[in-house]
Amino acid sequence: MTLxxxxxxxxxxxxxxxxxxERVGGIIRSTMPPAAQQFLRAQxxxxxxxxxxxxxxxxxxxSGEPGFAQAVDEGTIQLDAVLPEDDPLYESLKAxxxxxxxxxxxxxxxxxxxxGWARSQDGGIVxxxxxxxxxxxxxxxxxxxxxxxxxxLKRESARSGALLxxxxxxxxxxxxxFFIASRAEEGADASHRGGTPGFVRVLGPDLLQFPDYVGNxxxxxxxxxxxxxxxxxxxxDWRSGATLxxxxxxxxxxxxxxxxxxxxxxxxxxxxxxxxxxxxxxWEFVEASPFNPAVLSD
Length: 298
Known about the structure:
This protein is an alpha+beta fold. The chain has one domain (about 5-285): Electron Transport, Fmn-binding Protein, Chain A (Pnp Oxidase, Chain A). The protein has helices spanning about 5-15, 20-25, 35-40, 90-95, 165-175, 220-225, and strands at about 45-50, 55-65, 70-75, 75-80, 95-105, 110-120, 125-135, 140-145, 160, 175-185, 185-195, 200-205, 205-210, 230-235, 245-255, 265-275, 280-285. The strands form 3 sheets. Strands 9, 10, 11, 12, 13, 14, 15 and 16 form an 8-stranded antiparallel β-sheet that branches. Strands 2-1-5-6-7-4-3 form a 7-stranded antiparallel β-sheet. It has a two-stranded antiparallel sheet with strand order 8-17. α1 packs across α6 (about 220-225). The N and C termini lie far apart (about 45 Å).
């Protein structure tokens, strides 16, 4: 029995890595080993992704003091965090939903992905893991974090729109990191993308394009997009704690040549949410990933 759904298999076969994907897929577990539990407990933030109450797919940020995300047992995580009521995943989590999660530690370039099911419960979120695995350190920019005083954090309502504003377009064009949520019938996924600033091309207020660099050959994200074109991107302003959530429809660009990439993805923007002071966390840039390809200027 394959580890992968039809969309993932289709992409793997098209790229010619089907056998490799099955071998690499051996890293996927259904439970969290002690080292994974310890890693998660040390993190001050995670990103989750899934289908929102509006039918779009969204990625969003959850944060707290290290320990806010803890394994209750090898298959269950308790998150001491709540989403704002105007976050698109708020209603989904009230009812229970398929959710992808990524815990990423910029300072060490370590990351862990967890896919499963989550629900709001008792002032927090309970996550039941179905797939757990680590990814390589490629394309992760090294950053060190600190936390602002809680009394200085006055969370604002999100500003929403159907198109990207000029300032938001500049934010994305200068980003070296974003997170992407995708889903298929089998479940949801949250992943990380990184590169040299400019690796996300802003082609207009409703159109983004980004490369798909060499990865683990499983093609979880692209496989999901083959099955369901809905996707959500999350950009974090590392210095201010603001977030920019972008939801839309994506398609894989198989024939476009993007320097340093084997493929590309194009996202047609449908909805944008910007939230100032979304988290009390702040990060200082240390160094770029040595794996980041150069960006070809227009």
